[in-house]
Amino acid sequence: MSSTRHMHTASLLPNGKVLIVGGHTYINDTSYSLNTAELYDPITNTWKNTGNMNYGREEHTASLLPNGKILITGGYSVSGQRFLKSAELYDPATETWTITGNMNYTRQSQSASVLKNGKVLVAGGFNNEHLRSAELYDPSTGTWKITGSMTYPRGDHIASVLQNGKVLVVGGYSGKKINTVELYDPSTEYWATLESMNYARFCHTASVLLNGKVLVTGGFTNKESDSNTSELY
Questions:
Q1: Contact yes or no for 126/82 (Cβ under 8 A)
Q2: In 3D, which of 99, 92, 50 has the Cα closest to residue 70?
Q3: How far apart are alpha carbons 114 and 137 in whole angstroms?
Q4: How far apart are the C-alpha atoms of 172 and 150, rounded to whole Å?
Q5: Deepest of 31, 172, 197, 221, by most Cβ within 10 A of its Cβ?
Q6: What is the residue range of 37's domain?
């Protein structure tokens, strides 16, 4: 890549290229939140710079919309020392960014899930406190609306869209590691609390398997260290 970065996002585009966006870097021992973006071409095995975002950000989300554009939400700006509620759209056809509607809440370390109806569910995160709130983005209008709040505040969690269209949120951090699990139903816009995981964890992964189950792996657990544990939902 052209820039060193971490806490960025990576999105597989419909054309097979990979879009890398934002993140954190150090230049001469000074921290920066990047607004730069790069494209990886697997055919040529090369990188190229693409259009810059309007705002530098890290610990944001990136979601591939049904229309092929990428929605970037929230995050944190080191240079501004602020949490963000801004959102931007990347168009792979023009390699340019446009501002879209702001979220109702600033948030970093949130989750973003593309629902089967094309809307995007953003849940939780952190903005000096851990959040229970959730909101829905409508790509057809470029606007946000508040939806049902989670039972438990959390950031650094994982959200998975299940085969039935519901959204499973597992674990995260809210001043301590948590093992709670919740399920969002887009038809009612309410959350249900499910059986907790065996281990509290954050910064883990979750994968929806072909049989419909969800594999949760790793993260930070109760032992204040990395974990090699895994669980099936």
A1: no
A2: 92
A3: 9
A4: 13
A5: 172
A6: 1-102
CATH at residue 121: 2.120.10.80
Q: Number of structural domains, the chain?
A: 2
CB atoms within 10 A of CB 141: 10
156 within 8 A of 173, measured Cβ to Cβ: yes
Contacts of 97 (CB under 8 A, 6+ apart): 51, 52, 53, 54, 88, 89, 90, 91
Residues 72 and 170 in one domain: no
The amino acid at residue 152 is: Y
Q: How far apart are CA 115 and CA 42, in angstroms?
A: 28
Any idea which residue has 């508040």 for tokens? 146
Q: Are residues 92 and 69 in the same domain?
A: yes
Q: What is the pLDDT of residues 63-109, one digit of tens each?
A: 999 999 999 999 999 988 899 999 999 999 999 999 999 999 999 99
From 77, 102, 127, give the residue that closes a domain: 102
Can you give the pTM of this predicted structure?
A: 0.95
- The token pair that represents 143 in the structure block: 């606007």
